[in-house]
């Protein structure tokens, strides 16, 4: 029997209509590429999104066409988040931090009709053009006064807006239609496109606004640090419109000196980003404690994209007074998969014990199912110890990649392999051991590079740490710890190993420690383990070197501390 409920479709246009009507005066504050900070609100955001939707129609964009963006977190980019899917097209946010060949690949693969770009990417566009098969319209996201020379055939964002009125009815269509297209960062092979729907986006937003999700509400002011080009800024623009939260957009500047004043001046209560960004902000605050005047309003910080070290959670609490919520997910899961909130039984625990819980990768909220299986596909027990291959399924989990890349990705049960190795404990909390390609296989057992990194970063001298597995004649692989030391601090390898020996099993201890000035990061700010493995491919562990042979010069070259 068919139900008698209204068949209203879950469309992204309904989010901005709702926000404009019910939270119209709520501010959207944006740093702009031109310099000044701009204050707008949901009502104006809707008006301008409508005008942009009409402009896109005039430019020939039709239902299902792709519209690309190469842009930072600004009000204009957020307008595209509503204008493009609202009129039925698909927003492809291109990550400008990818290698140039990957950017070319993504733009060519997505076949956009219109490509928007920020002023800061004018040179990049000039460099890319010879290799682009793109024949559509280029739009520079500024006004005529700021349009750079030499881009005569590009249109201006503000000209397009000015030419339109705001009378418009958003088109109605099925919620299962595509709304946006984000490419994975392609650590192996070419980037693959994850194609989200209006329905998956709205269901994901409901989750973000739920109490056991990210608890986002109209009482929040969001400092949106995670880029709009990284998995739809983890869905925050849409969830913020759903609940009417104030949004602060930092533009191209994601460093400590730029973020701290925004946190302070805008009284942000909520923020979200990868661990590297938080580490940068905390380091800046520790170096300039005099700038931390008055109490911050910050209540919740969401950390995701890679494991949140316990020490980071502690520092966020101590320095910023913020509670950390760790989330696990991937482009393929929109990205929220599991979210680290406390259960009732944890409320009576000490702060330290609560931080232990928060250091796990979170538990599934309704909508995402997770399962851990062994090499033969058998489900492993939820005992917090049995680590295996992590699988996910749910209505905001990908069923395949754009244009069929990567072939069939779901198994017979509708599960997607995540490529992560994880365990699940009795309470359902997930612990990510590693990405399967990063886990260190030592004598038939697994060593978690993530656990070692998190332990190392707990040492007061360590700014950043990475662990990779390198070949070993007896154990197959052994861990190498690569460390960036905080400025002006001196520490020896033996100090770090002694510290680690109090944190992890003896057989997990890295065989060597190397000090470097910086570690390679991916386009989304994560440790780039593949590059690090390449960098150290000729490294020979001290224990493996012939006794009489002199020390290798490349080892000494990287040993600039300790
Ligand atoms: P990429 O890093 O390739 O751009 P994603 O952003 O989709 O792609 O990254 C997803 C991966 O990030 C996950 O498969 C997992 O390995 C890692 N990750 C995300 N969140 C966490 C977390 N809280 N703890 C550990 N690893 C995480």
UniProtKB/TrEMBL annotation:
Which SUPFAM superfamilies is this protein grouped with? Acetyl-CoA synthetase-like
- List the PROSITE patterns: AMP_BINDING
> What keywords appear on the UniProt entry?
Fatty acid metabolism, Ligase, Lipid metabolism
Keyword check for Lipid metabolism: yes
Which GO biological process annotations does it have? fatty acid metabolic process
Domain AMP-dependent synthetase/ligase residue range list? 31-402
Q: Please state which protein family the record places this protein in.
A: Belongs to the ATP-dependent AMP-binding enzyme family.
Name by which UniProt lists this protein = 3-methylmercaptopropionyl-CoA ligase
Name its species: Pseudomonas reidholzensis
Q: What is the lineage of its organism?
A: Bacteria, Pseudomonadati, Pseudomonadota, Gammaproteobacteria, Pseudomonadales
Primary gene name? dmdB
